[in-house]
């Protein structure tokens, strides 16, 4: 299945002021959405357009001449970019705070240069040269990190370069018998699907960042896509990897299963560029489905909805996509959607006795119509007393499944603080975790004249538990927009501690690194640090990510 994608965003892979190159100028909200936001959140009519790039302070490149000469010799001088615009283009990812930085609030972390190797061997040599010249290296795929994963931090080094994998964009080989495909790491997800479609195959990995993110980035962050119930998480797809480290190439994965000690592939998957640069991934692929169907259902209240999803997960009856919105997210979806008739739907649901509507979208796929319908029957049997809404809401969700980032640009323009965060836990603790995070976010963000909306959904369900994905909408604090979100995020992370994971699929980056010890223990952090030390003895790889830097020593702080 090749999904429809707005290819206009693809040629320019550099991160700018928003999801789209224009920073949202081409993103719009339906007219009624602004009125709804004003009524619900206290948003006043105050546009906050993107500042032009020229308004941002960017230091001159500090890449020492010998390092620049060596890097140029490896990749060609034309692939060592030091112009302000190129460096600014790879200055950070796409979190709310990253985007605020491009709107003049906070400072983007701008690298000294962008290096674009053309193949695996060049990546290896670049990594080794950076180690030799004490230059920090930030691997950069699609730059869609929302946790500071591509922040160009120096980590005390002389300079920092972004290693952009955009030129590693080839499908290396396909083995249809074993259902394996080998890709270079910089292939963007829609391109991977396009290349596989020619063989009648699909990867089935469709995160909301699908349009821009890369296969190497997915592997480096243990990404999870919207169809995870059908295809698994990205780590389930990784059969093999090649990693360029300062100590040489590390190649892993020779068979579908092995008892030869711990599975070291999982040291690379999720290593976030801190252990090396993934240059190639061998991925499990599947026959592309010929049939699919998406439908909407409504359950009354989140507890009933979560119980229904649990029944599906434990009974093997999940759809390929299974996604439950809580009452708040259902309300927001109705309010911000174009073309729906929320009043009529609410009246219908009231007549059916539903007090707190929770929208459940389920999508099924199959090689044949009969196979797809048999999956649908299994889900519907297990679902019990859900209200069926038919294909309308299912198709609407499907059509807009990648629209969220553009809508976020428009909400930012409108003066909103809009951000997401995610976690996961076991079914028995899910309600408690949801209540704790909601409470923390509402408590932190409620202020005179500002009423936050905290919406939540389950989009990844397992036999033993599920993820919770929160979306926050609140009028931006004009005086201290950065502090407003930092305080809320801190409160949410503190609420998660002990109840769930600090991240289900967004990864650790800079933002979650301080919370990792709570989750994996001091010994766990020590093990990660030892592995890093072995692979990257000079500590040049992606400083500050995954493993938090030790507290700064007294005296002047190192430049970032
Ligand atoms: C609007 C939006 C929606 C999102 N939705 C989802 C979602 O549904 N599911 C999900 O899982 N994530 C989601 N994300 C987060 C993000 O897209 C994922 O983390 C994704 O896997 C990052 O891929 P990327 O190619 O953009 O990597 P980047 O952002 O470029 O990098 C991410 C991290 O991986 C490292 N890295 C990248 N490439 C390599 C490599 N080849 N070798 C070693 N390290 C590397 C980077 O240094 C960084 O630490 C979303 C982000 C946004 C902005």
UniProtKB/TrEMBL annotation:
GO biological process terms on file: lipid biosynthetic process
Gene3D superfamilies: 3.30.300.330, 3.30.465.10, 3.30.70.3450, Uridine Diphospho-n-acetylenolpyruvylglucosamine Reductase, domain 2, Vanillyl-alcohol Oxidase, Chain A, domain 4
Site residues, Important for enzyme activity: 323
Domain FAD-binding PCMH-type as annotated: residue spans: 107-288
Name this polypeptide is given: Alkyldihydroxyacetonephosphate synthase
Alphabetical keyword list: FAD, Flavoprotein, Oxidoreductase
Origin species: Actinokineospora iranica
Record: active site: 469 (proton donor/acceptor)
Keyword Oxidoreductase belongs to the record: yes
Pfam families: FAD-oxidase_C, FAD_binding_4
Span of the signal peptide: none
Cofactor: FAD
């Amino acid at each position: 299945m090749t999904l429809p994608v707005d290819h206009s965003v693809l040629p320019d892979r550099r991160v700018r002021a928003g999801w789209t190159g224009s920073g949202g100028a081409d993103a719009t909200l339906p007219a009624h959405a602004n009125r709804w936001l004003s009524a619900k959140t206290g948003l006043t009519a105050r546009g906050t357009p993107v500042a032009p790039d020229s308004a941002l302070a960017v230091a001159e490149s500090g890449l020492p001449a010998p390092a620049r000469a060596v890097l140029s010799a490896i990749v060609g001088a034309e692939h060592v970019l030091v112009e302000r615009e190129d460096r600014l283009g790879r200055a950070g990812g796409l979190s709310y705070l990253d985007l605020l930085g491009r709107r003049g609030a906070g400072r983007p972390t701008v690298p000294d240069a962008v290096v674009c190797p053309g193949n695996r061997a060049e990546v290896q040599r670049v990594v080794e040269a950076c180690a030799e010249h004490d230059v920090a290296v930030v691997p950069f795929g699609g730059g869609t990190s929302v946790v500071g994963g591509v922040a160009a931090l120096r980590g005390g080094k002389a300079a920092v370069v972004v290693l952009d994998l955009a030129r590693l964009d080839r499908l290396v080989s396909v083995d249809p018998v074993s259902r394996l495909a080998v890709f270079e790491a910089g292939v963007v997800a829609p391109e991977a699907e396009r290349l596989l479609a020619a063989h009648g195959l699909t990867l089935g990995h469709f995160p909301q960042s699908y349009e821009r993110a890369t296969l190497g980035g997915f592997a480096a962050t243990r990404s999870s896509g919207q169809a995870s119930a059908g295809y698994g998480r990205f780590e389930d797809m990784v059969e093999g990897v090649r990693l360029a480290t300062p100590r040489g190439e590390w190649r892993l994965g020779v068979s579908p299963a092995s008892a030869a000690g711990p599975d070291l592939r999982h040291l690379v998957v999720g290593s976030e560029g801190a252990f090396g640069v993934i240059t190639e991934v061998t991925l499990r692929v599947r026959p592309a489905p010929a049939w699919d169907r998406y439908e909407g259902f409504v359950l009354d209240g989140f507890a009933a909805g979560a119980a229904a999803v649990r029944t599906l997960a434990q009974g093997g009856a999940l759809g390929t996509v299974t996604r439950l919105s809580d009452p708040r997210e259902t309300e927001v979806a109705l309010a911000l959607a174009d073309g729906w008739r929320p009043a009529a739907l609410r009246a219908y649901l009231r007549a059916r006795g539903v007090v707190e509507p929770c929208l459940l979208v389920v999508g099924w796929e199959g090689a044949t119509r009969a196979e797809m319908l048999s999956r649908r029957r299994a889900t519907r049997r297990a679902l019990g007393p859900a209200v069926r809404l038919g294909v309308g809401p299912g198709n609407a969700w499907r059509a807009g499944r990648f629209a969220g980032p553009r809508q976020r640009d428009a909400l930012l323009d409108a003066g909103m603080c809009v951000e997401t965060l995610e976690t996961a836990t076991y079914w028995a603790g899910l309600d408690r975790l949801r209540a704790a995070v909601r409470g923390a976010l509402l408590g932190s963000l409620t202020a005179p004249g500002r009423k936050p909306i905290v919406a939540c959904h389950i989009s990844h369900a397992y036999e033993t538990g599920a993820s919770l994905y929160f979306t926050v909408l609140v009028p931006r604090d004009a005086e201290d927009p950065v502090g407003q979100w930092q305080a809320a995020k801190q409160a949410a992370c503190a609420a998660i501690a002990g109840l769930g994971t600090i991240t289900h699929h967004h990864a650790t980056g800079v933002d979650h690194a301080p919370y990792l010890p709570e989750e994996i223990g001091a010994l766990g952090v020590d093990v990660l640090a030892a592995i890093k030390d072995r692979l990257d003895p000079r500590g040049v790889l992606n400083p500050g990510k995954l493993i938090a830097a030790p507290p700064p020593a007294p005296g002047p702080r190192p430049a970032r």
